[in-house]
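Incident review: delayed structure delivery

Summary: a single-chain prediction request sat in the queue longer than the usual turnaround. Root cause was a stuck worker, restarted by the on-call engineer. No data loss occurred. The affected request and its eventual output are reproduced below so the record is complete for anyone auditing the incident later.

Affected input:
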Amino acid sequence: MNLTQQLSTNNDCYKNNVNKLDSRYTTFQTRGPLGIMLHSVGCPQPKAQVFADTWNQPRKEVAVHAALEPGRVIQCLPWNFRGCHGGGDCNNTHIGVEMTEPSTIRYTSGARWEETGDGTGTKAHILGAYKTAVELFAHLCKEYRLDPVKAGVIVSHAEGCRCGIASNHADPEHLWNVYGLTMDRFRQDIKAAMEGGTPAPESPPPTQTPSVFQPYVVRVTHDELKIRSGPGTNYDRIGEITDRGLYTIVEESSGLGATKWGKLKSGTGWISLDYTSR
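Output delivered after worker restart:
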């Protein structure tokens, strides 16, 4: 892993840390991070330098501690500075790290994407970035004495959302699931790397073609089914279905309070699929 430091000294968040603007910044600097959050940039751009340059400007809403690509990490904030990366309380507790994404994918809607090549470049980038992330997280866990398998220490942006400490994102699992990678496996690989093992398995499960989600119809089996603004009971209740009719689901997601959540075609919101039949 090649780790270089290119601090975002022009970023307002960096300046707020230097000027010790308020207790959010001073507390993070004095205490240090309680965990690390893993993000994925959400666009087909494989170069970490692009993001490091973008964030190093005034009036930027994003300030991330590091961006990484396969084999390379660019540190953008001191590890003990408060960042602005997760859209919630995680900014006050977690280091934020962004993984770049391969140029050989195209987003179709939301977190759904499709392959634009033969799959070789996509697989190489995603698995290479995964391995580099394992190495970086192992290094940081050692430095700050963090237990990678302890609940809430190493989390993805998606997990942070489900826990109520980050904004509504699906990264990075929306890229990993094609290759059988999970956050649980990521945490175990970090632990193994800290103990001197191989940073990440060299032969993950075989590549699968990303599946395209097909909308389907469900029948509500509950007299009063709540509609929420997002996939989880941690989201606001914005409506209610009071008849056992048919509804079209255009997206699925995991979340608090249900085995699976479904997004209504009408755009009204999300319902628990535990109270429906397909």
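Verification: The two ends are 47 Å apart (CA to CA).
Action items: add queue-age alerting; document worker restart procedure.
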